[in-house]
Amino acid sequence: MRDTWPLLKTTDFPPLTRRSLEILQVNLGYLCNQSCLHCHVAAGPTRKELMQRENIEHIVEVLQRPSVHTLDLTGGAPEMNPMFRELVTRAGELDVSVIDRCNLTILLEPGYEGTADFLAENQVQIVASLPCYMEENVDGQRGKGVYGKSMRALATLNELGYGQPGSGLTLTLVYNPTGPYLPPPQERLEQDYKDFLAERFGIRFNQLFTITNMPIARFGSTLLSKGEFEDYMNLLKDSFSTANLKGLMCLNQLSIDWQGYVYDCDFNQMLNMNIRHPQKRHKLHISEVLDTDLDNIPVSIADHCYGCTAGQGSSCGGALG
Questions:
Q1: What is the DSSP pairing of strand 125-129 with strand 70-74?
Q2: How many domains does the chain have?
Q3: Residue 73 β-bridge partners
Q4: What is the pLDDT of residues 85-128, one digit of tens each?
Q5: Residue 287 class from Cβ within 10 Å (0-12 exposed, 13-18 middle, 19+ buried)?
Q6: Count of H helices and E strands in the chain?
């Protein structure tokens, strides 16, 4: 896989400064039952990296910080980490909201059949990847048969109350472009998703997030191999919007990798752009976060940051504008 980092590290992206920590996004490992083209962590069924108990304990310690209100679990398929359920339960006991970045098909895998019930019982917010509402596009990006399995998983979640009015169980779908272009306006696309899925399958959900593909990992390598990298970067830069800077996720969120190292966002994580200890200058570890003042330190930036500020903006919470 060709690396885009040499083409990204020199940048004129405007400087950013961190604010108070509110969201802890934790990558529980790269093990996944799928291998998606757009996956910026290059997850898959053969990956062995999984967060271990020592770092889970440090995560729980940081969740006790008064300013932290949300635990955002990602992977890979975060549900495949053997400690997933324990971490969700302990976060709930601390009155911390939990988000599960779910690929949907994991809910149907042998050994994971009870996962949907567990998520509902613990009031976990589900943010589920569905890069298009059309079967051909989904299977082309994520593998043959993924669309059909995703529809079955969504129906199961609806039966449990997810996406239903008054249930308190939030179901969010995530759109990623299937090529080197920006997502369409989020509100319009959300209505298209809702109309199509309701009419065809009777499926309901709360909201849609549109997320721009980053020119890194598998997607970046594909751009390079097709000779499209420069054009895509020009698109991101030409679509830069200053208004999106104030809503960037790197300002109030920390991203933790499976080994416990700390980053401004999960895209920086995949580029090994660690947060350095402000005084000691080594790679900051989750075990040091409670004893380290990270407010007002610079965010690590490179050219891929233009992906979050292009057009309507992009973050793990969808469009910014």
A1: unpaired
A2: 1
A3: 26, 100
A4: 999 999 999 999 999 999 999 999 999 989 999 999 999 999 99
A5: middle
A6: 11, 8
Query: Residue 77 gets which letter from DSSP?
Result: -
pLDDT at 37: 59
Beta-carbon-side half-sphere exposure of residue 221 (alpha carbons within 13 Å) = 11
User: Range of 267's domain?
Assistant: 5-309
Q: How far apart are CA 139 and CA 132, in angstroms?
A: 9
Is 317 inside any structural domain?
no
Residue-wise pLDDT for 151-184, tens only, equals 999 999 999 999 999 999 999 999 988 789 999 9
End-to-end CA distance of the chain: 33
CATH code: domain of residue 303: 3.20.20
Which residues in the chain belong to E strands, given as ranges?
23-27, 70-74, 97-102, 125-129, 171-175, 207-210, 253-256, 262-263
Residue 99 domain flag? yes
Distance CA 14, CA 36 (A): 31
Q: What is the dihedral of CA 37, 272, 277, 13, to 10 degrees?
A: -80
Predicted structure pTM score: 0.94
Estimate to the nearest angstrom the gap between the alpha carbon of 40 and the chain centroid.
9
In a domain, 319, yes or no: no
Q: How far is CA 190 from CA 50, 155, 184, 187, in A?
A: 33, 18, 10, 5
Q: Residue 42 domain-assigned? A: yes
